[in-house]
Amino acid sequence: MSHRAALLVLVAATLGTYAFRAGLILLLADRSLPVAVERALQNVGPAVLAALTVNLAVGGDGGTSVDIDAIELASLAIAAIVGLRTKNLVFMLSAGMAALLVLTEIF
Amino acid sequence: METEGTLTRHSRVDRQAVTDAVPLLIPAVPFGFVLGLAMTESDMPLWAAWLSAPLVFAGAAQLTMVTIAGTASLWAIISAILVINSRHVMYSAALAPMFRAQPKWFRWVGSFMLIDQVFALAMLRSDREPDSFRRYYVTTMLLFAMTWNVAVPLGMVIGPIIPEQWRLDFAPVIMFAGLALFAIKRVPAGIAALVGGFVSLLAAGLSDRLGILVGAVCGVVAGAIAEQRITALKARVEADL
Fold first, then answer.
1. Across all residues in chain A, what is the average pLDDT?
2. pLDDT digits (tens, 9 = 90+) for B140-192
3. DSSP assignment of chain A, as one string?
4. How near does any CA of chain B get to the CA of A58, in Å?
5. How many domains does the structure of chain A reveal?
6. What pLDDT, in 10s, does the model give residues B229-240?
């Protein structure tokens, strides 16, 4: 990739991302949304983050196959259980990574 | 109350924000390492890849950018980044009510650092008074900016030495799973997450990671429908009593 192309990508990514982040905060600064819409927006976090997690896990970048193996899936499940029990992301991460390493070693 | 006010005016750092942020900051470190390593292996010039950390400040999009830089066309790279980051439009909408009571400068500056973690934490503290909310938000955003801008360059340096068997590439997946899990406080949110994740799985084959956006939108809509149904059900039960 040439330096010029890289600069173009960088500028577009920076401006585009900032526009996404700031757009509605700035636009809706002086007006309010209908109550039902504001309430629906409460679910943005869970919906978006779950979609992002799954997409990263299966590597959904337009590839042909869904790419997550049983060991990764099991590790993620163990991490989720620990996460639900402890409500702590560090414990959750440690448990998930440990499970992944141990299971990979065994199988 | 007055003494407490004077005290907090001196210390700009919000202790609660630090306590809340640390468990989310630690998983961001291996993510930064993975990204730093990918940058050194990328076809993209190192200076541009590195600058994306402070400027774009979005791990998933940055990782995709440096990974496909060698193979995809210029427009494919740009559109992939924009598709992945389009989820921030929804973050922006969700936080708009909290930003309404904030000064203008903060709307411009705060939104620059509206990353997944800052959003997740800010939503948890959305009932705070405007001044207190701002202090909380600024503390978290600065903590994440510092961590990210240390972890990514560090990953560029030490990334190549980290054994592949450590599977640091899986850390971001667990991190985002945790963010999603902890964001679920009510039944409709749980339904939103389930539908969002499931649709994203079905749509994983779409190009430019469009599956994220498709899943997210379906999740939010499903959550809203669930909310409506539950409210209607409750009203009926109350009417029967």
1. 90
2. 999 999 999 999 999 999 999 999 889 988 999 999 999 999 999 999 999 99
3. --HHHHHHHHHHHHHHHHHHHHHHHHHTSSS---HHHHHHGGGHHHHHHHHHHHHHHHT-SS-SS----HHHHHHHHHHHHHHHHH--HHHHHHHHHHHHHHHHHH-
4. 7
5. 1
6. 999 999 999 888
User: Does ipTM surpass 0.85 in this model?
Assistant: yes
Nearest to B198 by CA among A66, A54, A58: A54
Query: Other C-beta atoms within 10 Å of A76: how many?
Result: 21
A2 assigned to some structural domain: yes
Whether residue A73 lies inside any domain: the answer is: no
Interface test with A, best of B55, B170, B199 (most A CBs within 10 A): B170
Of B120, B59, B79, B75, residue with least CA distance to B206 = B79
Closest CA relative to residue B168, chosen from B11, B16, B36, B5: B36
Query: Does the distance separating the beta carbons of A13 and B82 come in below 8 Å?
Result: yes
Restricting to A residues 3-22, those with a Cβ less than 8 Å away from any Cβ of B are 3, 5-10, 12-14, 16-18, 20-22
Q: φ and ψ at B139, to 5 degrees?
A: -60, -50
Which amino acid is it at B166? W
Q: Report pLDDT for A36.
A: 86
Look up the domain containing A5 and give its range.
1-31
Is A81 an 8 Å CB contact of chain B?
no
Asked whether residue A48 is assigned to any structural domain, the reply reads no
Q: A residues 19-78 near B, CB within 8 Å? A: 20-30, 32-33, 36, 38-64, 66, 72, 75-76
Give residue limits of the domains in chain B. 2-162, 184-241
Q: How far is A70 from chain B (nearest CA, A)?
A: 14
Please give the average pLDDT of every successive group of 10 residues along chain B, which has 241 residues.
Answer: 47 87 92 94 95 96 92 91 94 94 95 96 93 96 97 95 90 93 94 96 88 94 95 91 76
Q: Do A44 and B211 touch (CB under 8 A)?
A: no
